[in-house]
Amino acid sequence: MKAPVNAPVTTVLRRVNRVLLGLAGLLLLLVGGAVLAAALDLPVPSWWPWAGPDDVLLTAADRRRWREESWWWPAVIAALGVLVLLALWWLLAQFRRGRLAEVLVDTGDGDAAVLRGRALAGVLEADAAAQEGVAQARVALTGRRTAPRTRVALLLEPYASPGETLARLGGEALTRARTSAGLAALPTEARLRAVKHRARRVN
User: CB 124: neighbour CB atoms within 10 A?
Assistant: First the structure.
């Protein structure tokens, strides 16, 4: 039975970003072009509120029109609150956009299975952290679900050799992760940093 495959979160966010940016750009282009045309005293549509360089965006009557209505300020505050929440959601989504939610695994019989990206990253992270000389490991999956990539950050003990650590990472942890997930390749970007320690005093 073929496992259901859902669209990855990164693809959805990418499409949402493109649609939002496209709509915002189109709106700004139309409004800005119409205002510029009115300021230059060029022909504008009859329904456009600003028809010439002497017109103002908001008249005094427009600014004072709804002040005495009891629902005006609550509605304005609620609308602004919704806009702020949407902006915060979009901002937080950008930080999670680069992580891969799932990996498509070829089972070898023509079907496909879905492996959770967090599970694969967790196993690889534990395997890398268990290496000799590694104090801490952090792993993040990126790329596409059919062609995942990994970003590995290793915190090394003072005595650890970076060259040997990279060799063990590629020959052991990454090889096991690639084999268990049935991947032909698993490109990896590794960043190594040493643990800060105080210099020893020599008598």
Answer: 26
Contact 174, 124 (CB under 8 A): yes
pLDDT digits (tens, 9 = 90+) for 124-142: 889 888 888 888 899 888 8
- Given a contact cutoff of 8 angstroms between Cβ atoms, the answer to whether 5 and 112 are in contact is yes
Task: Single out the residue of 125, 179, 130, 178 nearest to residue 151, CA to CA.
Answer: 125
**pTM for this prediction:** 0.48
Task: Output the CA torsion 124→127→133→136 (10° steps).
Answer: 50
Domain residue limits, the chain: 9-96, 102-194
Contacts of 50 (CB under 8 A, 6+ apart): 34, 35, 38, 44, 56, 57
To the question of domain 102-194 being in CATH 3.20.20.70, the answer is no
Lowest mean pLDDT among 41-55, 95-109, 116-130, 133-147: 95-109
Average confidence (pLDDT) over 134-159: 86
